Each structure stands twice: as C-alpha cells, then as structure tokens.
Amino acid sequence: MGLFSSSDSTYLGIDIGDSSLKMVELSKKGKKIVLNNYGFSEDLGVANKLTSTDDVEYVAKLINKVKKDIGIGAANASVSLPSFSVFSSVINLYNVNKKNIAEHVNEEAKKVIPLPLEEMVLDWKVIPQEESGPNNPSSNTKIFLTGSPKKLIKKYINIFSTAKINLVSLETETFSLIRSLLGNDKSTVMIVDLGANSTDICVVKESIPYLNRSINVSGNTITEAISQKLGISPEKAAQLKFDLGVAAMGDNQTAVPQIIMNAVSPIINEIKYMIDLFENSNDEKVEKIILSGGGSVLVNLANYLENTLNVQVIIGNPWFRVSYPKELQPVLSEVGPRLSIAIGLAMRSIE
C-alpha cells in the first residue's frame, strides 16, 4: 500500500521475520512523526525462514519486491536483528576504574556469552542509577551488554548491499518494540511479542530489557492446533484464527476457545516464570504486560491473560506517536501489532 510519495527526509524501518517481511516509512514534519507508507509480504511459510536462510539473493529480491509493491522510494533503512540470535544481559561491575571500564566489560562478557568473543560484535552502555547512598553504593556499576554474531551482521550487510539499499543501522527487535510501544514510559513492564514462529518475552525496566526469552510456541502453533482439532487445512485454520481475532477486537464478552487456551498455555507458563524470576531478583513488580505481534489480536487473548495472571494486559498501540489520516484508523489498528518492530525501527532515525 502506498499512501504518499517518498523523499530524502523519510525514514524506513524493515523488520525481517522468520516467514514475513514488514516495512514502515515515516517522515518528520515539524514536531510530528507522520506515516508515509507501510506494507508486508504474504506469509512465506516455515520452509522459507528469512532469518536463517543463507540465500542472500532471495532475501534481497524479496525486500526490493515488497518495497516496489508498497511504493517506497527511500534508499536508507534501519533493520531488525532477531532477538533469538542476539545475546543480551545486565552485568554488574564492582569497584572498577571508569577509565578501564571497557576492559572489565570484556572480561565479564567472557563469562556470560556462550560463544568466543572473537566471533561476536559487542555493544554496551552504562545503566544510569540513582545517586550513591546507603542503599546504592557507588562501587556497583550496572552495564547493559549485547553481543551479535559477526556472521549474522555480515549476512545482513551483504543482503542490503545486494538490494542496493543503504543499511543505516541494525537493531535488536526488543529495542524497536520498546521505542514504538513504550516511548518515554519508564515503568517496569513485560512485552510479549507473539510472532509466526516464536514468541519473544522481555521484562523492561526504565527502557532497558532486563530479561529476555524466546520460545518456539507461536501463531503457527495455534494454527496447527486448530487444523488438527477441526480437521481442516492449515490455510483454512490460519484464516479462521485471524477471523476470530479480528471479530474479538474490542469485544470483552467473547470467550477464548479451548483450542487456543491449550495452545497458549506454554506461553502463560513462561510469562509466570519470568515475572517470578524478575520480581524475586529485583524486589519490584511488573506493572503491566503489553502484547504485540500478529498473535496478539487472537480472540480476547488480552483479557484471558489478564484474568489468568492477575496483571494488567493490553494490546500495544505502536501508532500512538504517529500521525495518519483518521480514515485509516480501522485498518491500522488491525495491522499495527504486526508492524510494531518496523515502526520502532523507522522511529530510530527520527529520534
């Protein structure tokens, strides 16, 4: 879908998922962030996992096809790195000399990153803390550490070089979600991104992801469960799942079908585990859960999770800081959860 013309002042976010490709193009007009274009590929199926394939030409051609079909002319893009491929951790450094902090970070990284450091690209930043006092000694420095495989980064560079698109930045999906769903909200929340082939769960405190987990229970898991239970094709099951989700949006009286309840139970168990782990380690509560991804609009799922977990659960709105024509609101509300990462990526260059 092409909404407006592209220009040099536009910002493009490209979310490369396992089985689909999403793009959002934004621009800055005064203090407003404005939607220019958006779109996504059709579901390519599990057999064509874009995040794991080594076929650079295939991915580059798909990117250019979607870009052309949407009508995007922007030549610069910020792109997502899959959360399950990037290691991240909050580490504590004690009694360190700030001048030699990089050396201390590398030494700690060897202890927590399971791969040799020479195979990784490390990035880190100091987490701001309250001024030192009796309950917060200055000897403790918290560091947010990320490690991305060099092989993965090289592949993405090759993909966009082949596609003749300027790769402005690579960013872990989690940070894109934080930007689009939280903005300046510094509260402690959990983001649950229900994708086609995996579900990424993250506890965020003051815009820093403190805990990250990725599990192989997803939208496709639910589709398979519906297909097997009702004896229908995966294609019909996927459409039924989508129709149920769209029909239930805004309807608080719709009950969650038992098939879906059973399919999402591993996700619920993982959410409970991560909340307990975080709250016991940090002595503070997760204030709410924000759902994202295509699976988030499933048949009253937010209310079901809220009642089961006894925590506020909402479907995230990645458009809340974006201006767009009012007549597009119904369709943007429907597709928004699928585009949260791409929206956050496009915002990266604006902010």
Q: Characterize the biggest β-sheet.
A: 6 strands, mixed
Class inferred from helices and paired strands: alpha/beta
Global Rg = 21 Å
Mean pLDDT: 87
Low-confidence stretches: 1-7, 249-254
What would you call the shape?
Answer: globular
CATH architecture of the domain at 212-314: 2-Layer Sandwich
What percent strand?
A: 25-35%
Strand line-up across the major sheet:
8-4-1-2-3-14
**Total helical segments:** 9
- How far apart lie the N and C ends? 25 Å
CATH homologous superfamily descriptor of the domain at 212-314: ATPase, nucleotide binding domain
Question: Helix proportion of residues, in percent?
Answer: 25-40%
CATH class wording of the domain at 212-314? Alpha Beta
CATH topology group of the domain at 212-314: Nucleotidyltransferase, domain 5
Number of strands: 14
N-to-C order of helices and strands? EEEHEEHEEHEHEEEHHHEHEEH
Question: What is this entry, summarized?
Answer:
With 351 residues, the protein is an alpha/beta fold. 38% of the residues lie in helices and 27% in strands. The protein has helices spanning 56-70, 101-112, 150-162, 173-181, 219-230, 234-248, 258-282, 301-309, 329-350; strands at 10-16, 21-29, 32-40, 76-81, 87-94, 120-126, 140-149, 166-172, 189-194, 199-205, 208-215, 288-292, 312-315, 322-323.
Q: Which key terms come to mind for this protein?
A:
single chain; 351 residues; alpha/beta; Dna Ligase, domain 1; Nucleotidyltransferase, domain 5; 5-stranded mixed beta sheet; SHS2 domain-containing protein; ATPase_NBD; PilM
